[in-house]
Amino acid sequence: MTSDESVRRNAFCAAVDWGTTSFRLWLLDAGGAVIAQSRGTEGMERVRERGFETTLAEHLDKIGAPAGTPVIICGMAGARQGWMEAPYRPVPAPLDELAAHAVRVETSLGDVRILPGVAQIDADAPDVMRGEETQIAGLGVQGDTLVCLPGTHSKWVRIEEGAIADFATFMTGEIFDLLSRHSILRHVMDAGEEGDETTFLAAVREALAEPDVLTTKLFALRAGPLLSLADPAAGATRLSGLLIGAEIGAARRRLAAESRKLLLVSSGRLGALYRSALAEAGFDVDTVDAEETTRTALHAMARRLWPSAEENAR
Amino acid sequence: MTSDESVRRNAFCAAVDWGTTSFRLWLLDAGGAVIAQSRGTEGMERVRERGFETTLAEHLDKIGAPAGTPVIICGMAGARQGWMEAPYRPVPAPLDELAAHAVRVETSLGDVRILPGVAQIDADAPDVMRGEETQIAGLGVQGDTLVCLPGTHSKWVRIEEGAIADFATFMTGEIFDLLSRHSILRHVMDAGEEGDETTFLAAVREALAEPDVLTTKLFALRAGPLLSLADPAAGATRLSGLLIGAEIGAARRRLAAESRKLLLVSSGRLGALYRSALAEAGFDVDTVDAEETTRTALHAMARRLWPSAEENAR
After folding, report:
1. Which of A76, A99, A296, B131 has its CA 20 to 30 A from that of A85?
2. Count of CB atoms within 10 A of residue B305's CB?
3. Which of B216, B248, B253 to mutate to test the interface with A (most CBs of A within 10 A)?
4. How far apart are CA B124 and CA B105, in angstroms?
5. Is ipTM beyond 0.90?
6. B221 three-class SS
7. pLDDT tens digits along A37-91
8. Are B69 and B305 in contact (CB under 8 A)?
9. pTM for this prediction
10. Chain B residues touching A153 at Cβ < 8 A
11. Is B210 helix (H, G, I), strand (E, B) or coil?
């Protein structure tokens, strides 16, 4: 037996974050350490034809996971249009009860469970999440906390007494993408150039001051450079500042009436932008790596689901 | 000589509205009546390769315009990336001076002139128009008036003492198109079904009441039907109501502090939607057909540019 094989025999579970456009799998030991990992672009949208089971089996095979390794999955794989529906849990949704509501998928692989998402069943503010509830469960939050998870569809979540109490989704990332690639504003996008923070924060301040900024200020991004009143190279930076500022301003009004303490679940360039915009808006920010908190949560939930498997893997 | 030829000999000018994605040409007699017309999709964007002169010549030929007929053009053909730049006139821009600032294009055709656009050279609210200034000139406005011209990029314009004093552009039509065709909201768009007015006006009212509606309410269009809290067939109607309501609310705050009288330059389904949304917002609306006012203005401007040609055509 090679040492590689011996390490893999310590595998306790495979943890999977299966989103709309991405797939991430970690083979974890009983302590939660990563033995091996695999990533792909086989998100829910691309997988439908090839099949979820085939895709999962290939990734498990690629990293040499032992046959029968139990698998825990969060994300869009549990959507109605995903692999198998894991019905939403309504708010207030206790974080430590999520694992108990995972659905079991019949496969030729090991025990495979998909975690539920969370829904806000409120006709005035209907909202859903799939995947973020798991990231949040991994934060180990004690007491009341406000959490911001930026992305294609940014989520702002209030945690109260260990449960997801209230949340709101903002299409910030998707709207940035559509406007910068497909609208008339594509003519003033500086192809990936890093804008300066002064320009970014000025746009954030404008958006915080004027809630209707997405209605009133977008066309000016094009007209300003046309009239030599604005630097054409600052277009993407300003668009990003206006969108992120509008999100933070709206979320502050709706969810952050009292506290200014906030957990930011993000990393890289986007995390840095949000951190500086949130500070501008008066928030006291702690940053947590998004992938790490997902893995932490999936491991903790797997330990609840398979206590005896954990024993065996030790 | 056929009667058809005899009619064409009465041609005084060709009037052209040359936009980003469309081309419209009318052969007019000295009184402004339409002798013949031609339309196409050879907007500025498609024409660049084939050439503007070739395209114009083909349309003139197709309707049998006499050789040497003078041509007056408004719209994007006068943009920097168009046929020949007709520099923007700054606000306040007197409507009866637009024709005098038309640029003359050297062609093998008759006398060809392109009208200027109008620019708001204001670092806080930079804005531009090309084509709408001509529509507005055709309205024959006396005194101070507020004008709304809905479309891909809706314009709201304040006329004072016969000049364009102040204006604002809203990307309403373009954002509707991007969100309904390319975003996650495409899943709740009711493929062209006509929504009911009650649903539309409810969305308009929400947007008028909450200026940050484009930040806060879009994702709910998807989440509502997912949670059976909203009719999935109402998605496009609600999106349209939110976007049009947000535009009207912002324009009302910025441009309509005093008066509630408004001229709406539009027609068809879009005109009807704006008319009912504007009434909901408390405006007293008169509607003018967009094409008719363009033609009226181009004819009046041609009479100024070519008084002797007009004599000859009578």
Report:
1. A296
2. 18
3. B216
4. 34
5. yes
6. helix
7. 999 998 888 887 789 999 999 999 999 999 999 999 999 999 998 999 999 999 9
8. no
9. 0.93
10. 184, 219
11. coil
